[in-house]
Amino acid sequence: MIVEGLTTTDAALVAAVALIAGMMRGFTGFGAALMLAPVLAYAVGPRAAIPAILIVMLVTSVQLVPRAWKSTNWSVVTPLAVGGSIGVPLGAWLLISIDPELMRRGISLTVIVLALLMLAGWRYRGQVRASVAAMVGVMGGFISGAAAAGGPPVILFLLSGPENAARNRAAIIMYFALVQVAAFVVYAVADLITLQTVLLSLPMIPTIVIGTWLGERLFGKASETLYRRIALVVLLAIGLSTLFA
To answer: What are phi and psi of 3, to 5 degrees?
Structure first.
């Protein structure tokens, strides 16, 4: 056993999943937490898993932010991030208060429903107002605080708009980076960041860094539509497998 609750086999599994998750994160700007959350939560429970995943996501943000900064549309990202920062404490309270088994299954159901929704091609048709962006950000922040998987509401909102792939990817990366900082502060205040949290993150960091680097290099060199569909199918499979485990 490497960490309390995490066996050597578990560590190898989450490290392997982190490599694939990193490629998704580097290429699309999203998907890593959605992939990691059900797997690690199944191994050690959500209260230990979610803060550990947050640390890993912060590492990937450090990798991705420098290139994303120059392509960011701040008029959209700012209200999203403000809303997300408001939603995170509410989600963190839920993480502390709710039954861990219920939370684990809730994470899996969240992955399944949102993956299906995105695969179905649902699109937001309304005007992109700051107030709408803020509400979407609150929803994403709430899910991030509770399950480290708050991307889908924000991703759906951004991908349905008029921006090109590069600007959408930059907006997703910057939103996550800003909300992750807010989430880290909230988790620290709530004593969810511990030595065990850091140790749980260690098996994932080397492989997710490599995966993120590979994914970033692939961005713009492959069919974004094909990769997105593959990523969502993988997420759906993980959600289903962990829901009924």
So the answer is: -130, 155
Tokens encoding 232: 């969502």
Among the listed residues 5, 15, 12, 31, the one whose alpha carbon sits nearest the alpha carbon of residue 176: 31
Question: Within 10 Å of residue 188's Cβ, how many Cβ atoms?
Answer: 13
Which positions ≥6 away from 60 have C-beta within 8 Å?
A: 22, 25, 26, 32, 208, 209, 212
Helices and strands of the chain, counted as H and E runs: 11, 0
Give the tens place of pLDDT for each residue, 185-203: 888 988 889 998 999 999 9
Q: 0.85 exceeded by the pTM? A: no
Residue 113 in tokens: 């429903």
Of 13, 34, 140, 126, which is closest to residue 81 (Cα–Cα)? 140
φ, ψ dihedrals at 6, nearest 5°: -120, 110
How far is Cα 110 from Cα 64, in angstroms, rounded to an integer?
25
d(CA 49, CA 123): 31
Task: Give the residue, 28 or 65, on which the prediction is more confident.
Answer: 65
